[in-house]
Amino acid sequence: MDMLKKCTYLLLLLCIIPLSGCGDQRILEDLGFIQTTSYDLLPDGKLAITVSIPQADPETSAKREVLTANAESSKEAKMIMSRRTGMLLVSGQIRNVLFGLSMAENGLHGHLDTLFRDPSISSQVKVSVVEGNAGELLIDDYKQHPRTGRYIDMLLEKEALGQTIPKVTLFNFARDFFDQGVDPVAPILKKHENNYITTNGIALFRDDRYVTKIEPQDAMVFAFLKGKFRDGQINIELSEPGDTKEIVMFSSLISSRKIKVIRGAQGVDKVTYHIKVTGTVLEYIGDARLSKDQERHELEKRISKYISKKGDAIITLMKQHQVDSLGIGTVVRNRIGYEQWKKMNWRQELQKIPVECSVEVHIKDYGKFR
Length: 370
Fold this sequence. Notes:
The chain is α/β, with parallel strands linked by helices. The chain contains 12 helices and 15 strands. A hairpin with a 3-residue loop joins strand 8 and strand 9.
């Protein structure tokens, strides 16, 4: 009899276990996985929010569903959009957040804070600024890229690998926002009339507000100043207007950086960036014969001068707009100590401190041609 009871209890237990997992069943085809979302600021102060959702239903020919709503907050907009679709909207697969320029100029902290508070959203979601209206860029269809969200994600990943833009996530932006010694940056996207999207420089923020940008042609020099990396390429035009054309495509770059802070009686007297760049001349248009050591070394010096000049211009731009996108303040704080740092008004102090770039370039290879 005891054996019969035990078998009965075991049978009941086996029946109960499968039932315990039935409380929150979600069918994949019924879920709307938001991949990309955009924010724009309207003239009345409301938000225009757009989401792109890849379609998983094999019965539909559409590659994605796009929803948009105007609301006071992102959560209210999500509630409005959920009433317009048969899918249950979920945020766990968000890859990119796009902010229109009007939104970025007004400040991003409150909206990023909302994303951080949602436990379903990863801190590795990429943050970008759109030159113009972010919703229009996301809503548009691009013939060669049926899924716009995936198109944007792959574009940002590929360009970040080549160092032409920084890879900026929610975590990166929040870390730099709360650190008093560095300001956040973000890549800029732009929609062109010929129906494609391109990266268009680097947005520089003062705290959480967009104030200016690094132009696309100077983005690699910004990467030299920002930190060490491997791989990347830069096109350099060394000739002045009216001179014989001289252009160098410098590829397979390896860059390293050291920052020297010279202290004085009143604080910091000077900051110097020492940058070393090694690479391959992939293309050269000019009169120098790279097989000749002397002429090759002369070319290295001209490239060094070019990068130094561009670096100085970037630092001057930062000073003009009172931003520290390179994190000079972090290096200074570590050098002088926190007690002295607390007494500084760093944004004002940065205007006074001389910051210089010293660049050393080495051509490791110049191709098979002799």
